[in-house]
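REQUEST FORM: STRUCTURE PREDICTION
Request ID: SP-0412
Submitted by: Lab K.M.
Chain count: 1
Length (residues): 250
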Amino acid sequence: MKKIIRLLTAILLASGIPHAAAAIINPGITTWVGAGSNESILAIQWRDAKSPSAIAFGYRWTSGTTTLNDMITAVLAANVGLYARGDLISGGFGNAYFGFGYDTGLDSSFSITGAEDDLGDPATPNFINGFWDMGSGYAGPWSSLNAAPANSSDRYQEGWMDNGFWELFTATSTFTPTTWTASNDGGTQLLGSDSWYAYSLTNADYTSVTPNLTSLSASVPEPSQIASSLLLMLGAAFFLWKRQKAKHQA
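STATUS: Completed
RESULT:
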């Protein structure tokens, strides 16, 4: 019987049955960028009626001077499907973000149509390291109301001085947060460990859309599934024990 217990213990340790996660790690977030002992989450929530409404990326870092801009730049450059359009402004509130997109197929072929420059003329997408620099400052441009992903399965929306704007929310939680605080600190703020940063496109009238990341909650097997798994593992352990016993008796 002791052998069965030892075998079962070994199988349980090697199995995928959920266990308490350390720090902020959320099983629903599978894409991580960077390295270090500190962890933060970047989430983007669109207003395009597609599901899931938001996508999140994990970021690991070490330096106490790491900013939100650093995290966003690292995620954009990591070729994990996230794209942004805006203005690389130094100082003040940091980078201004006019649009966020996501390459659903992760095939590095992301593109948008209907984009305009600050004069209202057609603009050709030019994403470098995931970012398309408008280079126009806070005085403009307005967002491109007709901007959309070239591939309908991808995600992309703009908002700045019309069509709402990308509002920043923050939260602190070891798992998916449900309470958010609107932030006016912008991208120059220092990252906080175990913190979440979500850009959510407001309504067209500029009223806030509080981030909803419930779809990122951990996927935990139902109790019946866990019980079935335990029975299967117990049966496997018992079978191995019987085989060993039979060999000794032969």
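NOTES: The chain has a mean pLDDT of 78.
Reviewed by: T.R.
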